[in-house]
Amino acid sequence: xxxxxxxxxxxxxxxxxxxxxxxxxxxxxxxxxxxxxxxxxxxxxxxxxxxxxxxxxxxxxxxxxxxxxxxxxxxxxxxxxxxxxxxxxxxxxxxxxxxxxxxxxxxxxxxxxxxxxxxxxxxxxxxxxxxxxxxxxxxxxxxxxxxxxxxxxxxxxxxxxxxxxxxxxxxxxxxxxxxxxxxxxxxxxxxxxxxxxxxxxxxxxxxxxxxxxxxxxxxxxxxxxxxxxxxxx
Length: 233
Prior knowledge:
With 233 residues, this protein is mainly alpha-helical. It has one domain (2-230): Arp2/3 complex 21 kDa subunit ARPC3. Helices cover 62% and strands 3% of the residues. It contains 10 helices and 2 strands, in the order αββααααααααα. A two-stranded antiparallel ribbon has the order 1-2. A hairpin with a 6-residue loop joins strand 1 and strand 2 (31-33).
Protein backbone atom coordinates (compact mmCIF):
# COMPACT_ATOMS: atom_id res chain seq x y z
CA UNK A 1 0.00 0.00 0.00
CA UNK A 2 2.83 2.39 0.86
CA UNK A 3 4.56 1.69 -2.44
CA UNK A 4 1.34 2.40 -4.33
CA UNK A 5 0.92 5.67 -2.42
CA UNK A 6 4.45 6.67 -3.35
CA UNK A 7 3.75 5.70 -6.96
CA UNK A 8 0.96 8.27 -6.95
CA UNK A 9 3.27 10.80 -5.28
CA UNK A 10 5.93 10.28 -7.94
CA UNK A 11 3.22 10.44 -10.61
CA UNK A 12 2.21 13.86 -9.28
CA UNK A 13 5.84 15.01 -9.26
CA UNK A 14 6.28 13.82 -12.83
CA UNK A 15 2.93 15.35 -13.80
CA UNK A 16 3.95 18.76 -12.47
CA UNK A 17 7.25 18.55 -14.37
CA UNK A 18 5.35 18.06 -17.64
CA UNK A 19 4.02 21.61 -17.38
CA UNK A 20 7.48 23.24 -17.16
CA UNK A 21 8.63 23.65 -20.78
CA UNK A 22 12.33 23.63 -21.64
CA UNK A 23 12.54 23.58 -25.43
CA UNK A 24 10.28 22.95 -28.41
CA UNK A 25 10.66 19.72 -30.35
CA UNK A 26 11.91 20.86 -33.75
CA UNK A 27 9.19 21.85 -36.23
CA UNK A 28 6.32 20.70 -33.99
CA UNK A 29 4.04 22.31 -31.42
CA UNK A 30 5.24 19.87 -28.76
CA UNK A 31 7.83 20.61 -26.08
CA UNK A 32 10.55 18.97 -24.06
CA UNK A 33 9.81 19.75 -20.42
CA UNK A 34 11.22 19.29 -16.93
CA UNK A 35 9.68 15.84 -17.32
CA UNK A 36 12.89 14.87 -19.13
CA UNK A 37 14.71 15.31 -15.78
CA UNK A 38 12.24 13.46 -13.52
CA UNK A 39 10.66 10.92 -15.87
CA UNK A 40 13.52 8.36 -15.79
CA UNK A 41 13.69 8.23 -11.97
CA UNK A 42 10.56 6.58 -10.45
CA UNK A 43 11.60 2.98 -11.16
CA UNK A 44 14.92 3.54 -9.38
CA UNK A 45 13.02 4.10 -6.12
CA UNK A 46 9.85 2.07 -6.65
CA UNK A 47 11.00 -0.81 -8.84
CA UNK A 48 10.33 -1.40 -12.56
CA UNK A 49 6.58 -2.07 -12.30
CA UNK A 50 5.52 0.71 -9.93
CA UNK A 51 7.95 3.11 -11.58
CA UNK A 52 6.44 2.44 -15.00
CA UNK A 53 2.94 2.87 -13.54
CA UNK A 54 3.89 6.28 -12.13
CA UNK A 55 5.19 7.43 -15.52
CA UNK A 56 2.20 6.07 -17.44
CA UNK A 57 -0.29 7.70 -15.04
CA UNK A 58 1.41 11.08 -15.25
CA UNK A 59 2.00 11.14 -18.99
CA UNK A 60 -1.34 9.54 -19.80
CA UNK A 61 -3.18 12.17 -17.76
CA UNK A 62 -1.50 15.06 -19.59
CA UNK A 63 -2.25 13.53 -22.99
CA UNK A 64 -5.90 12.90 -22.19
CA UNK A 65 -6.28 16.47 -20.95
CA UNK A 66 -4.49 18.04 -23.89
CA UNK A 67 -6.45 20.38 -26.11
CA UNK A 68 -4.74 18.89 -29.16
CA UNK A 69 -5.81 15.74 -30.94
CA UNK A 70 -4.09 12.62 -29.63
CA UNK A 71 -1.82 11.02 -32.21
CA UNK A 72 0.35 7.93 -32.36
CA UNK A 73 3.40 10.00 -31.44
CA UNK A 74 1.75 11.14 -28.20
CA UNK A 75 1.04 7.54 -27.25
CA UNK A 76 4.58 6.52 -28.17
CA UNK A 77 6.02 9.29 -25.97
CA UNK A 78 4.51 7.56 -22.93
CA UNK A 79 6.70 4.56 -23.61
CA UNK A 80 9.83 6.57 -24.35
CA UNK A 81 10.02 7.40 -20.66
CA UNK A 82 8.97 3.94 -19.54
CA UNK A 83 12.04 2.51 -21.27
CA UNK A 84 14.17 5.36 -19.90
CA UNK A 85 13.08 4.69 -16.31
CA UNK A 86 13.67 0.95 -16.76
CA UNK A 87 17.17 1.63 -18.09
CA UNK A 88 17.95 3.89 -15.14
CA UNK A 89 16.61 1.39 -12.61
CA UNK A 90 18.12 -1.72 -14.20
CA UNK A 91 21.48 -0.22 -15.13
CA UNK A 92 24.13 -2.96 -14.65
CA UNK A 93 21.34 -5.44 -13.80
CA UNK A 94 19.53 -6.48 -16.98
CA UNK A 95 21.19 -6.60 -20.39
CA UNK A 96 17.88 -7.42 -22.11
CA UNK A 97 17.05 -3.71 -22.21
CA UNK A 98 19.95 -3.16 -24.59
CA UNK A 99 17.87 -4.75 -27.33
CA UNK A 100 15.70 -1.60 -27.30
CA UNK A 101 18.29 0.84 -28.72
CA UNK A 102 19.56 -1.90 -31.05
CA UNK A 103 16.05 -2.45 -32.46
CA UNK A 104 15.57 1.32 -32.69
CA UNK A 105 18.74 1.58 -34.81
CA UNK A 106 17.50 -1.19 -37.07
CA UNK A 107 14.07 0.42 -37.53
CA UNK A 108 15.68 3.78 -38.26
CA UNK A 109 18.09 2.58 -40.95
CA UNK A 110 15.48 0.47 -42.82
CA UNK A 111 13.17 3.47 -43.14
CA UNK A 112 13.46 5.21 -46.55
CA UNK A 113 14.24 8.57 -44.91
CA UNK A 114 16.25 7.22 -41.99
CA UNK A 115 18.49 5.20 -44.29
CA UNK A 116 19.73 8.46 -45.82
CA UNK A 117 20.70 9.82 -42.41
CA UNK A 118 21.67 6.49 -40.84
CA UNK A 119 24.53 7.96 -38.81
CA UNK A 120 21.98 9.84 -36.69
CA UNK A 121 21.08 6.47 -35.15
CA UNK A 122 24.67 5.97 -33.93
CA UNK A 123 23.62 8.03 -30.90
CA UNK A 124 21.81 4.93 -29.69
CA UNK A 125 25.02 3.08 -29.19
CA UNK A 126 25.46 5.29 -26.13
CA UNK A 127 23.03 3.36 -23.85
CA UNK A 128 24.77 0.13 -24.88
CA UNK A 129 28.29 1.46 -24.32
CA UNK A 130 27.35 3.19 -21.04
CA UNK A 131 25.98 -0.07 -19.69
CA UNK A 132 29.36 -1.77 -20.00
CA UNK A 133 31.50 1.12 -18.72
CA UNK A 134 32.32 1.46 -15.00
CA UNK A 135 29.33 2.36 -12.83
CA UNK A 136 28.82 6.10 -12.89
CA UNK A 137 25.77 8.30 -12.27
CA UNK A 138 26.31 10.60 -15.24
CA UNK A 139 26.79 7.72 -17.67
CA UNK A 140 23.73 6.01 -16.23
CA UNK A 141 21.74 9.21 -16.76
CA UNK A 142 23.16 9.67 -20.26
CA UNK A 143 22.22 6.12 -21.22
CA UNK A 144 18.73 6.64 -19.85
CA UNK A 145 18.04 9.84 -21.76
CA UNK A 146 19.37 8.31 -24.99
CA UNK A 147 17.12 5.31 -24.42
CA UNK A 148 14.18 7.72 -24.45
CA UNK A 149 15.68 9.46 -27.47
CA UNK A 150 15.95 6.21 -29.41
CA UNK A 151 12.32 5.22 -28.87
CA UNK A 152 11.03 8.74 -29.39
CA UNK A 153 13.02 9.36 -32.57
CA UNK A 154 11.82 6.16 -34.21
CA UNK A 155 8.24 6.98 -33.25
CA UNK A 156 8.67 10.45 -34.75
CA UNK A 157 10.22 9.06 -37.94
CA UNK A 158 7.34 6.67 -38.51
CA UNK A 159 4.52 9.11 -37.66
CA UNK A 160 5.66 12.40 -39.24
CA UNK A 161 6.77 13.24 -42.76
CA UNK A 162 10.42 14.28 -42.64
CA UNK A 163 13.42 14.58 -44.94
CA UNK A 164 17.01 13.38 -44.39
CA UNK A 165 18.27 16.93 -43.91
CA UNK A 166 15.93 17.29 -40.92
CA UNK A 167 17.72 14.48 -39.06
CA UNK A 168 21.18 15.58 -40.12
CA UNK A 169 20.52 19.11 -38.85
CA UNK A 170 19.43 17.69 -35.49
CA UNK A 171 22.71 15.89 -34.78
CA UNK A 172 24.52 18.76 -32.97
CA UNK A 173 21.29 19.85 -31.26
CA UNK A 174 20.72 16.35 -29.87
CA UNK A 175 24.23 16.30 -28.40
CA UNK A 176 23.62 19.51 -26.46
CA UNK A 177 20.09 18.70 -25.32
CA UNK A 178 20.91 15.17 -24.14
CA UNK A 179 23.95 16.31 -22.18
CA UNK A 180 21.67 18.84 -20.49
CA UNK A 181 19.03 16.19 -19.79
CA UNK A 182 21.62 13.75 -18.42
CA UNK A 183 22.92 16.40 -16.05
CA UNK A 184 19.38 17.21 -14.95
CA UNK A 185 18.56 13.55 -14.33
CA UNK A 186 21.72 13.09 -12.25
CA UNK A 187 21.06 16.21 -10.14
CA UNK A 188 17.40 15.24 -9.66
CA UNK A 189 18.42 11.73 -8.57
CA UNK A 190 20.77 13.11 -5.93
CA UNK A 191 18.14 15.58 -4.72
CA UNK A 192 15.42 12.92 -4.39
CA UNK A 193 17.79 10.44 -2.73
CA UNK A 194 18.82 13.11 -0.24
CA UNK A 195 15.22 13.93 0.69
CA UNK A 196 14.11 10.29 0.92
CA UNK A 197 17.17 9.34 2.96
CA UNK A 198 16.35 12.13 5.39
CA UNK A 199 12.75 11.08 6.00
CA UNK A 200 12.40 7.46 4.85
CA UNK A 201 15.83 5.91 5.36
CA UNK A 202 14.40 2.99 7.35
CA UNK A 203 11.50 2.17 5.03
CA UNK A 204 12.35 -0.82 2.89
CA UNK A 205 9.54 -0.21 0.38
CA UNK A 206 11.69 2.54 -1.16
CA UNK A 207 15.06 1.80 -2.77
CA UNK A 208 17.04 4.75 -1.43
CA UNK A 209 20.63 4.72 -2.67
CA UNK A 210 22.63 6.34 0.12
CA UNK A 211 25.69 6.62 -2.11
CA UNK A 212 23.86 9.49 -3.80
CA UNK A 213 22.30 11.05 -0.72
CA UNK A 214 24.07 14.18 0.42
CA UNK A 215 25.10 14.06 4.08
CA UNK A 216 24.62 10.27 4.24
CA UNK A 217 27.38 8.40 6.10
CA UNK A 218 28.50 6.48 2.99
CA UNK A 219 28.15 9.36 0.54
CA UNK A 220 31.20 9.39 -1.73
CA UNK A 221 31.91 11.90 -4.46
CA UNK A 222 33.70 9.30 -6.57
CA UNK A 223 30.34 7.93 -7.72
CA UNK A 224 29.70 11.14 -9.65
CA UNK A 225 32.89 11.56 -11.65
CA UNK A 226 33.73 9.93 -14.92
CA UNK A 227 35.47 6.53 -15.03
CA UNK A 228 38.75 7.81 -16.43
CA UNK A 229 38.89 10.39 -13.61
CA UNK A 230 38.32 7.71 -10.99
CA UNK A 231 41.43 5.85 -12.10
CA UNK A 232 43.61 8.83 -11.25
CA UNK A 233 42.51 8.95 -7.61
